Backbone:
């Protein structure tokens, strides 16, 4: 019996929602339902289709909680996640479900992901990730061991993920709804709760991920400490190299975004104290501090 698929899309009512929903409805593997969870009371533009179900949150509960609300309401045996500013290629579900057919036939737990086309800002185009997760490889090792300076080397982005609904019965998606890394938090929890889960990374580009200029703008709030706390909580059982590399990169990025030299210093101190960062991660952190100093100098000259 073919699995039935429920698509879950959290939204703030952005205009891009229409295209996201349409891409789910046009799959060559027909979906059973598309559950749109609105974290807003604004009116939304949606295609006309009986498979669309609209839910309303209680108001600004965040994307993790909205995804969980959609999962809780789903009738399908497979959950497929999609952000409201992304789209799927028409063969996305067909190819992913074919790739996990063996695991599904024998009742083995699985999670499917894929490569994606990254569009923006502007006319920029590239494909992420450049390398796929290895068979049996640690999620933390894959995502957070820093092996170079180019962005997008390793990623398991939300809109590429689908999995049996039973997995979110074992570990709810919103167990840590405020975590800085939503997908990674759930994937790490699942790998620990269900050690034999098979993560199948399809090599084809099966979705489109949009990066806008707003995604690259700096934040006035220094969230480095939130990222440090996440790393110590979720990566405490990982190797010192993974933990050190993470603490020298993700919290540093948050500090650089806020132009906080103090945040970079705290991140680097945590990396040295709690891990053993590799050379690429250390250089990344040093370059982050240098970027802040250069920006501060330019601002003082104006």
Residues:
């Amino acid at each position: 019996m073919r699995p039935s698929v429920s698509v879950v899309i959290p939204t703030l009512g952005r205009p891009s929602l229409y295209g996201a929903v349409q891409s789910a409805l046009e799959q060559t593997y027909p979906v059973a339902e598309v559950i749109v969870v609105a974290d807003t009371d604004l009116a939304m533009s949606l295609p006309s289709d009986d498979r669309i179900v609209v839910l309303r949150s209680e108001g600004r509960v965040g994307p993790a909680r909205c995804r969980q609300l959609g999962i809780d309401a789903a009738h399908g045996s497979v959950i497929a996640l999609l952000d409201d500013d992304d789209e799927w290629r028409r063969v996305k579900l067909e190819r992913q479900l074919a790739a996990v057919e063996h695991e599904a036939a024998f009742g083995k737990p699985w999670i499917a992901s894929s490569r994606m086309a990254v569009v923006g800002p502007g006319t920029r185009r590239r494909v992420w990730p450049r390398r796929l997760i290895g068979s049996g490889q640690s999620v933390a090792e894959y995502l957070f061991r820093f092996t170079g300076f180019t962005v997008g080397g390793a990623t398991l982005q939300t809109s590429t993920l689908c999995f049996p609904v039973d997995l979110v019965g074992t570990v709810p998606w919103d167990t840590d709804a405020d975590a800085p890394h939503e997908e990674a938090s759930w994937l790490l929890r699942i790998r620990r709760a269900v050690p034999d889960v098979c993560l199948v990374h399809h090599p084809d580009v099966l979705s489109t991920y949009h990066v806008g200029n707003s995604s690259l703008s700096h934040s006035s709030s220094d969230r480095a400490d939130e990222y440090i706390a996440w790393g110590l909580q979720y990566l405490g059982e990982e190797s010192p190299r993974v933990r050190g590399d993470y603490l020298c990169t993700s919290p540093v990025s948050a500090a650089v975004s806020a132009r906080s030299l103090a945040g970079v210093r705290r991140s680097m101190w945590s990396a040295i104290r709690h891990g053993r960062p590799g050379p690429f991660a250390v250089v990344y952190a040093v370059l982050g501090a240098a970027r802040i100093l250069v920006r501060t100098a330019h601002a003082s000259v104006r």
